[in-house]
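Friendly challenge for the regulars: who can give me the structure tokens for this chain first? No prize, just bragging rights.
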Amino acid sequence: MEASGSSEPRRTERASPRSPASRAADPNAAEGGTSRVRGILAISGPVYLVWWFAVEWLLPGAFNPLPSRLAVVGLSAVLLGSSYRNRWVERHVSALFTGWACLLVAHYCYLLIGNHGDSTWWVGAFVTFAAASMCLQSRREVAAFSSFSFVGVLYAAAVEGNCVIRFTCPDWQRFCSWRI
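First reply, four minutes later:
Bragging rights claimed.
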């Protein structure tokens, strides 16, 4: 009999070979991780294509080339299909999806520059980037995506001449401005 008063012998449970910390580091190891990313891919590509029609309707005359959008959407379809046919792609689908999301950001920055930094496209950038970042599966992927997105919008702002740092100097009652 044990000190706890129980007449049953103490059981020792074996720890799984993969600790929770190692499962958290691998986004595909979580239950349904691969299928979750596949579902996101199956939705995100078509949504980005449908959005082309919305832009054509809401912003007539905007720079919105269909071939580049089809390339981004087509790559999501290739990634989705490959995740079923290739074991390596299946194991790395989450990281590959992050790469695709970065391609989507690059495409959106291309559209932003093509539309001369119109404020409508800047608002769209915030919405698109926020939505894409919510689909990522790990902190590492969010960090990589966020860094890439930040550099992309800084580049777009610099190309459009909007990357200006201004501050006031109240002691001197003058306005200082530097361009980077």
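Residues 101 and 132 are 6 Å apart (CA to CA). The beta strands are 164-169, 174-179. Your move, everyone else.
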